[in-house]
Amino acid sequence: MTVSVRDVAAAASVSVGTVSNVLNRPDKVAPATVARVTAAIAELGFVRNDAARQLRAGHSRSIGLVVLDVRNPFFTDVARGAEDRAAEAGMTVLLGNSDENTDREGAYLDLFEEQRVAGVLISPLADDLPRLQRIRDRGTTVVLVDREVADQSFSSVAVDDVVGGSLAVSHLIDTGRRRIAFIGGPMGIRQVVDRLDGARRAVAAADAEGVSLEVIETESLTVLAGRAAGEAIRERAASDRPDAIFAANDLLAMGVLQALMMQGSIDVPGEIALIGYDDIDFAAAAVVPMSSIRQPAALIGYTAVDLMLKEADGETARERVVFQPELVVRESTSSRS
Questions:
Q1: Predicted confidence band at 56 (pLDDT cuts at 50, 70, 90)?
Q2: Residues 6 or more apart from 335 whose CB is under 8 A from it?
Q3: Is the peptide bond before 186 cis (omega within 30 degrees of 0)?
Q4: Among 295, 294, 293, 284, which residue's Cα sits nearest to residue 331?
Q5: Which of 79, 99, 172, 210 has the fewest CB atoms within 10 Å distance of its CB?
Q6: Residues 263-275: pLDDT tens digits?
Q7: How far apart are CA 249 and CA 254, in angstroms?
Q8: Where is 335: in which H helix or E strand?
Q9: What is the pTM of this model?
């Protein structure tokens, strides 16, 4: 049987209003009364209905976060940073995994609106943002995560992925590589497109002869997709293989590494150098420690919540925060001897 506020009031011989004050404004109640009400709560096993209270107030103390793939440790770290900032504000984070699927993304957005979250943080799949605009127009603050828009119609926090892609491929060229392959996809994901754009810029700016860039599109940004791409490269004649690979994220790079080194068939980095993106913990722990482009994942999540809180409180106009990526060099891109 559910215990109500009225039950607590009767047990403590106080009014319902007094119980409400003890729950929400205990500083306005005499200590002896607080103790009596608290004892009644414990004895009856009363649990307050925060959801109903928050809905009456018009919003909850929760923040919705939608990421592309929760299996990717990068997004796990983003969520951890968001949780840290939310906890400082006395709030919680509800995590949704779109799994790179627009229908699932939409379902989470519907759910978060129904829950009347205080704000939505999202790494959206597509450039088309009218749905997010409608959510914001209905009173829910929206912040883009690991993504930005040129017109600053939304607050956003991201890393400059064009610079990151350029860093990766410039490094491969500097180590003497000339036949470079970019592996990533789908191309509907803006981060993939930006990293490829940076790779192309590095090739165009290369002060070396014979530098080329092959694009190998994948259906997802997973280890399995990387393994499939790596197996296809492994099956080529040696003269037809790239001598370097830039993978759009570290999960892809891990799959490529597994495929290339299967049965010891291709030496990394002797025959093919390999660099990923995100610098997840597994990159350094791979059988051949992988070079990568580092993003401050936890800081991205922390900053996204901070922007949401400021905008929701009317403290600032919409802000665009862009962090710079960092090249991390490990054995997978060692220079040829």
A1: very low
A2: 175, 176
A3: yes
A4: 284
A5: 210
A6: 668 999 999 999 9
A7: 9
A8: none
A9: 0.79
